Amino acid sequence: QLPFLDSDFLAIIASVPLEQRLYHAFYNEWLAHFPSYVSATRWQAYPGHVPCPVPSDDTLVYQWDKTGKRRPSLRARRRTTQRAWASLMATGLANPMLRTHAFVAVTMMHLTGLRNYDYAVSTAVMLQRRWRVCRASGGGVVASPVTRRPTPIGSHQAVH
User: Which residues pair with 151 in a beta bridge?
Assistant: First the structure.
């Protein structure tokens, strides 16, 4: 059983005073009680939080630093947008895994350079591709009547 799905574990964590849990202080102390290989992996700390005890590699990019970040070129944005439109047209607008209006808005913001949404557009293209494969094989997803989230066909549970 995963620790964050265990109610007893969560109760113990919740019993630790909030001040001790802030800024990853408790997390870092907790890791010290595990074998050394657990804390040997470098992670990126948030600004103002307890820093990672593993020395940093100077070649790594700090995600919170805006300097030195380059926006994708217009050519790269067009290529991503073309893949997105081609995928959308091949699949149609009926994919319940995507909100078409949001997909179109994000793609347009990416194309115009307003925001770098390459990751979101690429993920949507991948979802479209999976949807196409699923439909071609006779499978698919349907929206759950309770959550309105996509649920694989055949896995619906009766709601009591």
Answer: 142
Q: How far is CA 144 from the centre of its chain?
A: 21
* Rounded percentage of the chain residues whose pLDDT exceeds 90: 2
Instruction: Measure the CA dihedral 54/60/65/66, to 10°.
Output: -170
Contact 156, 142 (CB under 8 A): yes
Gyration radius from the chain CA atoms: 22
Mapping DSSP to helix (H, G, I), strand (E, B) and coil, where does residue 75 land? helix
Among residues 135, 133, 134, 157, which one has the least CA distance to residue 144?
A: 157
Residues in the chain, overall count: 160
Instruction: Answer whether 0.70 is exceeded by the pTM.
Output: no
> What's the rounded Cα separation, in Å, for the pair 21 and 1?
23
Burial of 103 (0-12, 13-18, 19+ CB in 10 A): buried
50 neighbors 32 (Cβ within 8 angstroms): no
Give the tens place of pLDDT for each residue, 13-47: 889 899 988 888 888 888 888 888 888 887 777 87
